[in-house]
Inverse folding.
């Protein structure tokens, strides 16, 4: 008998049918993968299961009995635990304080729960230090805390909402080991992802959602990357290297012996030198925190240079972001929500952030809203941004659509140099393909791209040359034919330094 | 020597209502709700306490009844703030300011008939002072040593996390705001029943504002609040001393409490205390907000 059954769950948001008669079941001791593109309705379904949203229609059965899950409290009582997509921990509190919240003893809750934490954690191979403050933990460690939390509460069904999107490959592997342990212990796991290799590595069954509907339901044996991708996107998808023969031109960017300090005043870049030609894609690989952010900040005018020179098309790079942009440098920032957009402002306003103060968007001191809307409409169409309206605040859009808004804005003025930082991080296949296509199109028109990414597939698939940042020094750049995944991995971890 | 002891004694007696009101404000801020209505709730508490004591003829039993009434009125006033800011999700700063103005105005109006009436029995100050210090210690223990305190702190830091675990964010916040109001009412009762035993309009004289600023100064720590309250009690006392002795116009002195507030905030800024603020302080909580 299935442990948990969803029957014909429907959920509408203003203007969107987020879940459309979704039915699925989960058995004890299995990993059910829930796949779908951004906006397919995965998080909504999970929120319904966890009592955060009420379904408009449909019912939930636990061991064959209908249950009403009106709040997270109800879900926890029913044995349903959630590891949310973004950690919801109190960062200033310790791990033990977080885990004691709601279930600790009346007196000294954090102290008394510590032994219990260690017992549960060790039982499933999850290492955590109960005394560590949460803000000192890595994303992977925070996730372990969330898993332990669900287990401490006696979860029989554990929902993991895109757990690997914040993990390094090694951390993801560790997570899979834990998931296998849990499965062996008879727990049911619902694993949400749009990374196909991972789903194939861990899932027993796959359910694919598209536009709120279940479009496929495959046992592991019948699933393949191509088949799942096709179901998710609704058409067939190519996994081959995307870069054609590039047309490389003049040297556009020349960085010589560049050093810069991080915000914590440590030397984050140590004598970095490279050249970037127009039409070229230079990939920058590296484990986060090895100087990538500082390099991009220097190149976008956000950080001062300690030593060395940066020349853009033969002239020194200005030192403020607006003038750098005016010289044709577009920036697709790492933190797309906070740095790339103003979340509470509308799509149209966000699209106009770079150009609102000039004709045609304004005349003298007066803004021209009609011109804004016309421009926004054109950009939304060109980049296929899925948004209910031009007036929707961007915080309500999915990550992929926020990224499209940023691309539309940054690439509007025919940039000569594009600084793209983790441009497809967290995006689904469709949005990733579109971002890649746009970047490559721009190189055909003569732009140079500096692509900073932790995704080696992406770097190998797009770059002409790849450099590795390791502890503030640049290794390479090497022509892409001369490096392999394995070699990059070694360079990134200092194995060949 | 005698002068110093006297100053210390006065510092404690000014410090007592400061500490009470500060602990109250600290409590609701720890749950994530700012209530700038402290001054108004203090005035209402002072009046309610006085009215009950006066009306019932001031026996020993009715002192406690009067104190209880003051706390109840403070809590009720705070519940208005809770409803407006938690349920209706209005701006906490604006709502608190209105509460102060409303409280001061209402107390002034309703208190007219008590103006100038004395209470014949002046209870000793020390039980209240000790009580306030004990309360600070107790609150410190509750916050850091109990499940209740953990829940409260978590709601103030990250209400979404607490909500996701099935905790009642709204309930906790209501309770904390009401308790904060009760303590502001208690501080008011101390002024009208113990410190002065009388009622005059405007008798809270900016103490509520200092209490609010003090919360920041002590970095949201109940234990540090004890020392903060004594320190500012001393400054308050000095201000009164100077007022009696100098040729400076009294308007200047009347503005001193507010200068003190600015001083408190400036000192907190220097000590970097703003960084201790509960993460979700001042932000209404909506489930599913992104
Ligand atoms: N709170 C909300 N209000 C309005 N629309 C929402 C809300 N949450 C999700 N949506 C919309 O519902 C659809 C499904 O979203 P979601 O479940 O988050 O997708 P997924 O997790 O698969 O990426 C999207 O179109 C999204 O914009
Ligand atoms: Mg999601």
């Amino acid at each position: 008998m299935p442990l948990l059954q969803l029957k014909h769950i429907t959920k509408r948001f203003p203007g969107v049918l987020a879940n459309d008669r979704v039915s699925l079941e989960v058995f004890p001791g299995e990993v059910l993968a829930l796949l779908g593109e951004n906006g397919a309705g995965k998080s909504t379904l999970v929120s319904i299961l966890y009592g955060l949203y009420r379904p408009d229609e449909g019912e939930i059965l636990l061991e064959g009995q209908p249950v009403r899950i009106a709040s997270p409290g109800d879900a926890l009582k029913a044995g349903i635990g959630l590891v949310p997509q973004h950690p919801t921990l109190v960062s200033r509190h310790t791990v033990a304080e977080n885990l004691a919240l709601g279930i600790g003893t009346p007196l000294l809750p954090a102290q008394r729960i510590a032994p219990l934490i260690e017992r549960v954690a060790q039982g499933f191979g999850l290492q955590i230090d109960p005394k560590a403050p949460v803000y000192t933990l890595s994303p992977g460690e925070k996730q372990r805390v969330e898993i332990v939390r669900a287990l401490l509460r006696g979860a029989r069904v554990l929902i993991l909402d895109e757990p690997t999107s914040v993990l390094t490959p090694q951390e993801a592997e560790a997570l899979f080991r834990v998931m296998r342990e849990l499965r062996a212990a008879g727990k049911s796991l619902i694993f949400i992802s749009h990374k196909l290799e991972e789903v194939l590595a861990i899932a027993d069954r796959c359910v694919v959602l598209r536009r709120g509907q279940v479009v496929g339901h495959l046992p592991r044996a019948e699933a393949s990357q191509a088949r799942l991708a096709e179901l998710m996107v609704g058409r067939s998808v190519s996994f081959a290297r995307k870069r054609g023969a590039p047309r490389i031109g003049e040297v556009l960017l020349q960085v010589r012996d560049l050093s810069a300090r991080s915000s914590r005043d440590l030397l984050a870049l140590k004598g970095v030198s490279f050249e970037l030609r127009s039409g070229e894609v230079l990939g920058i690989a590296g484990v986060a925190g090895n100087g990538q952010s500082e390099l991009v900040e220097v190149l976008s005018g956000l950080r001062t240079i300690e030593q060395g020179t940066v020349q853009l098309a033969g002239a020194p790079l200005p030192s403020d972001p607006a003038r750098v942009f005016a010289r044709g440098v577009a920036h697709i920032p790492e933190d797309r929500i906070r740095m790339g957009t103003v979340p509470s402002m509308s799509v149209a306003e966000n699209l106009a952030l770079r150009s609102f103060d000039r004709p045609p968007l304004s005349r003298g001191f007066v803004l021209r809203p009609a011109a804004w809307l016309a421009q926004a409409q054109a950009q939304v169409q060109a980049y296929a941004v899925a948004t209910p309206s031009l007036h929707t605040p961007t915080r309500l859009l999915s990550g992929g659509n926020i990224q499209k808004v940023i691309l539309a804005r940054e690439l509007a003025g025919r940039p000569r140099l594009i600084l793209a930082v983790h441009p497809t991080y967290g995006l689904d296949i469709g949005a990733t393909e579109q971002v890649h296509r746009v970047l490559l199109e721009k190189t055909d028109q003569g732009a140079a791209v500096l692509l900073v990414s932790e995704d080696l597939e992406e770097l190998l698939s797009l770059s002409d040359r790849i450099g590795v940042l390791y502890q503030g020094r640049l290794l390479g750049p090497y022509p892409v034919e001369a490096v392999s995944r394995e070699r990059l991995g070694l360079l990134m971890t200092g194995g060949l330094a | 020597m005698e002068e110093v002891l006297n100053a210390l004694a006065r510092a404690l007696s000014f410090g007592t209502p400061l500490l009470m009101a500060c602990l109250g404000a600290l409590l609701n801020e720890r749950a994530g709700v700012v209530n700038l209505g402290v001054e108004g709730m203090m005035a209402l508490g002072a009046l309610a306490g006085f009215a009950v004591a006066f009306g019932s003829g001031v026996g020993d039993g009715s002192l406690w009844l009067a104190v209880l009434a003051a706390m109840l009125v403070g809590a009720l006033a705070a519940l208005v703030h809770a409803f407006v800011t938690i349920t209706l999700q209005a701006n906490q700063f604006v709502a608190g300011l209105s509460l102060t103005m409303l409280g001061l105005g209402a107390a002034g109006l309703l208190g007219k008939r008590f103006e100038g009436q004395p209470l014949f029995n002046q209870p000793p100050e020390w039980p209240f002072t000790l009580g306030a210090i004990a309360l600070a210690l107790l609150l410190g223990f509750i916050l850091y040593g109990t499940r209740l305190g953990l829940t409260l702190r978590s709601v103030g830091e990250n209400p979404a996390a607490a909500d996701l675990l099935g905790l009642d964010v709204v309930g906790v916040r209501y309770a904390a705001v009401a308790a904060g109001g009760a303590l502001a009412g208690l501080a008011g009762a101390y002024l009208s029943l113990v410190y002065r035993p009388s009622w005059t309009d405007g008798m809270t004289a900016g103490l509520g504002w200092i209490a609010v600023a003090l919360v920041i100064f002590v970095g949201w720590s109940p234990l540090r609040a004890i020392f903060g309250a004594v320190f500012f009690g001393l400054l308050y006392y000095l201000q009164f001393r100077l007022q009696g002795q100098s040729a400076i116009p009294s308007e200047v002195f009347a503005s001193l409490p507010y200068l003190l507030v600015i001083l408190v905030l400036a000192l907190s800024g220097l000590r970097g205390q703003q960084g201790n603020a509960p993460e979700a302080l001042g932000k209404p909580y909506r489930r599913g907000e992104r």
